[in-house]
Design a protein that fits this description.
Strand content: 35-45%
Number of strands: 4
Number of helices: 2
Structural class: alpha+beta
Helix content: 25-40%
Shape: flat
Radius of gyration: 14 Å
Length: 94
């Protein structure tokens, strides 16, 4: 199991155990500095709400970074612009 998958599992475990459904697909993010992050985009839904996750990482042989975002369906309008700005400006130096 990849670290991305393990983090997704840990963050959604309680909701899934309570009857929520989890869907996921591979994703990539290209940063402002040209680096490409690889990971998972997922949605967990319950009867009353939904949350979107994105877990992506970048690594070298002995070091790396993992980025996790979560947006609840009630928070999309306020949080999505902030997260978009984060991705547009992020540069990684390892």
């Amino acid at each position: 199991m990849s670290l991305n998958q393990l983090m997704l599992q840990e963050m959604t475990k309680e909701t899934v155990e309570a009857g929520g459904t989890l869907s996921q697909e591979p994703t990539t993010r290209k940063l402002a500095d040209g680096k490409q992050l690889i990971g998972i985009k997922a949605t967990v839904k319950t009867r009353t709400d939904k949350a979107d996750f994105e877990i992506v990482g970048f690594g070298l042989a002995d070091q790396g970074l993992l980025f996790i975002t979560r947006i609840g369906d009630q928070d999309t309008a306020t949080e999505q612009p902030m997260i978009d700005k984060f991705w547009q400006t992020l540069k990684v130096k390892l």
